[in-house]
Target: Nuclear movement protein nudC
Amino acid sequence: MADNEPTPAEEAAARARERAEQEALPYKWNQTIGDLDVSFTVPANYKGKDLSITLNKTSISAGVKGQTPIISGTLPHAIHVDDSTWTLTTAPGGNEKVVEIHLDKVNKMEWWPHVVTEAPKIDVTKIVPENSKLGDLDGETRGMVEKMMYDQKQKEAGLPTSDEQKKLDILKKFQEQHPEMDFSNAKIS
Model:
């Protein structure tokens, strides 16, 4: 283990602190590689006209009209405003309503550390995407995501990434074709 690697106890403490910070937020959020959803509750008698929700390419403000927004700030990355939406639905039990905001990421290849830059961050290197969601991606994007995930696992295990493995395979094949050459001091870069 490298010197700068956290111990399992430090890692667990960091995860617990991160979870506590996220649970303290006045909204809940989750994401896939391509989009992000934010939700919060309001009293059951509220209607859409009682809400104030503004989505811009790089900012968000959402809450009840005349009150401090529940979420407001600068997005860490751009969204497609025209493909981002919000809904107001009755929560199970009917005692309150849920405001759900769907943000469509411009860059479908990056995880967001937070919804707004003013909020506490999560460690995006610890995100494990649901495999079922990978099936939703188009072939080329899915291939890139799977390669990124594979390379991340290989790095964590101290093994060669797919690109490094390709170079090793080429060298091995070349060695087999040229047994007369000495590769004992060969360096791959």
Summary: The chain has a mean pLDDT of 85.
